[in-house]
Amino acid sequence: MTDVYFYFQVIDTNDNSPTFSEAAYSFDIPEDTGRGAFVGAVVANDMDEGINAQVSYTVLSDWGNDVFSLNPQSGVFTLTSRLDYEQVKYPKKLTVVMSLLRLYLCSILR
What we know:
Strand content: 25-35%
CATH class: Mainly Beta
Low-confidence stretches: 100-110
CATH topology: Immunoglobulin-like
Order of helices and strands: EEEEHEEEE
Number of domains: 1
Oligomer: single chain
Strand order of the largest sheet: 2-6-5
Structural class: mainly beta
Largest sheet: 3 strands, antiparallel
């Protein structure tokens, strides 16, 4: 009689949507802030493990992409354009979406 041993590894499935750590983010940016300045950062977490827990960030706004740069891995916003409130009345809300890198479960911050 021979004993046979089996080892099983349960692998995490991508079954959790990422969530932002805050319900809303607010960044006050003075009009005279220079290009390249740090504006703020958003943070999201995913309860999955490994590659299923990796998130990326994207701005869902044409004007937002013209004014800000959002690092897709870190969630850090920097200013890429000069702000002139008298010339352009920018909207007060910017939509940011985070998604998993491989599958597209996502959460939207508005």
